[in-house]
Amino acid sequence: MKTFAAIDVGSYELAMKIFEFSPKTGMKEIDHIRHRLDLGNDTFAHGKISYEKVDELCCILREFAGIMKTYRVESYQAYGTSAIRETDNTAIILDQIRQRTGIEIGVLANSEQRFLDYKSIAFKGEDFGKIIEKGTAILDIGGGSIQLSLFDKDTLVATQNLRIGVLRLQELLGELNARPSRYESLLEEMIDSQLSVFKRMYLKDRDVENIIVVDDYVSMLLQKKIAGSQRAGYLDSEGYGRFMEYLHTHAREEAAAHFGVSEENFRLVCISAALIGRVLQLMDAKLIWAPGVTLCDGIAYEYAERNKILVPKHDFDQDIVACARNISKRFLGSRRRGETLEHICMTIFDSCRKLHGLGKRERLLLRIAALLHDCGKYISMVNLGECSYQIVMATEIIGLSQREREIVANVVRYNHQAFAYYENMGLPAGMDHASYLTIAKLTAILRVANGLDRSHKQKFRDFKTALKDNQLVITVNTTEDITLEKGLFSAKAAFFEEVFSVRPVIRQKKFI
Prior knowledge:
By secondary structure, this protein is of the alpha/beta class. It has 22 helices and 14 strands. The strands form three sheets. The chain has a six-stranded mixed β-sheet, with helices on both faces. A five-stranded mixed β-sheet has the order 3-2-1-4-5, with helices on both faces.
């Protein structure tokens, strides 16, 4: 049995969950500690967290450290989200926390944070698997932003981040100096202005029947079977309408007492409720499910998955690939061409494991790069590499860290233009020498794959690869004319030879 602590340094509160892992019981929560600390308003209003808030944050984390010792926690993982991520002095704050508490805090990119939330939902097993059989949206509400993700036939097909989180909206309302009676209409205007864009981009031909809600405010009320719900966490659209009507027609003090929420938190409950209501109306969904999970659950699930304590019930890598395919579609990429390159890349990657020494995660990054290899042509056919890089960096791919997205973007870029060596690449912070080598190796493989489908006619559908002496022999079984591929292949193969000291060569099994 192992004891693990998951710590979430959120925008509005700090939370820690203690879990026990065992082969028999799997993952079991044994304690949940929450402490309200409003870091988000400092960050979103001023760009920095005040000294007083940092001091209080360190005091709470020291208490968390003491609790971990009491439970004899063997391992922990602590993450900061938008309040930490968006401060101007993130590195300084993280160093202070480490020096004063001994706790190391990682900073999650938005896509990583939402992916962990998504994993915590998937851990619900049968409920999750059943609900996503029909058109479903996940509405993940945070302090700084919300994430809307769409499922179609069990597959995650689109995801988009909108900067209308509850704390950010509360801060905007405060800046307007409007009368409280105007808050509701102003809130709807701010929410609808962004949701309308989302609708035009993603909901043209999609039917959404279910909405899965992850938040710190309304979810706990849904778990209490509000508005006549028959099952904890579930509420139909009519029941949610009655809930909203109650909020509109009762004084704040009375409604807060009725739902057992402090008046201080109730305003955030109302903002979160308005967000859910507008999404429900936008999508004309019939059912809301609030599984009652938190980021801490996702952190624990990932730890258990990484250490092979739990076996995943859902293929999360396939969701990432599905997102990449839909991004390619949005920028008018060829599906057949992308799938052909993906197949060629995977075959070469698998046959050259001894050469590149890369793992499962890098294999996934190569698949994504193959699918997005020419997305930049949507902007420019001439400056294809740079435009592709900018699209990948500007488009969120849920489940990838900032470092991984930078790797994919550079592989796509250098597939089309001269490779920049380490001293000249100008990699951003967090991209080390190992990341550079990963970019070089994946670029080399993608270039060879691109050379094998130079005519875009998928002539290399049936082929094999084998390492012989200092050659990567690519044997294609086709009667088609591959003169073009052979003639232009050396230029694509040269970089592969430079990176791996192995020369790729083409052999044709069937001749015309």
